[in-house]
Amino acid sequence: MRTRGSRSGLALKNGVFVLNAPGIVDADYRGEIGVILMNLGEESFTVKRGDRICQLLLRKVERLQWKTVDALSATGRGEGGFGHTGLK
């Protein structure tokens, strides 16, 4: 599960952003979830009970089984790194 994304309106209107985003909450965690906010705006900002200060995104976690191989198969992308999608 990922959590703690900035709300666009809060960031635009007040300069308040969520730090360490996106954060990840492990599936077996059972405690309180906190949010780290930073005010980059000119005015002070007070969080009141019920304020919507962040967004939560729930994601399925895939469980993998790793397999050791001697070589990887070729792909259209090859060894191209950042910015190489294989499309021309």
Explain this structure.
The chain has 88 residues and is mainly β. Helices cover 8% and strands 19% of the residues. Strands 3-1-5 form a three-stranded antiparallel sheet. The chain has a two-stranded antiparallel ribbon with strand order 2-4.
Helix-strand category: mainly beta
Q: pLDDT under 50 segments (min length 5)?
A: none
Tell me the β content.
Answer: 15-25%
How would you spell out the order of helices and strands? Answer: EHEEEE
**How would you sum up the major sheet?**
3 strands, antiparallel
Q: What's the end-to-end separation, in Å?
A: 35 Å
CATH fold field value of one domain: Deoxyuridine 5'-Triphosphate Nucleotidohydrolase, Chain A
Going by CATH, the homologous superfamily of one domain would be Deoxyuridine triphosphatase (dUTPase)
What's the overall geometry? elongated
Mean pLDDT: 80
Report the C-alpha radius of gyration, rounded: 20 Å
CATH architecture assignment name of one domain:
Distorted Sandwich
Helix count, DSSP H or I runs of 4 or more residues: 1
Q: What is the CATH level 1 assignment of one domain? A: Mainly Beta
Query: Could you give the order of strands across the largest sheet?
Result: 3-1-5
Helix content: under 10%
Oligomer: single chain
Annotation, overall tally of beta strands: 5
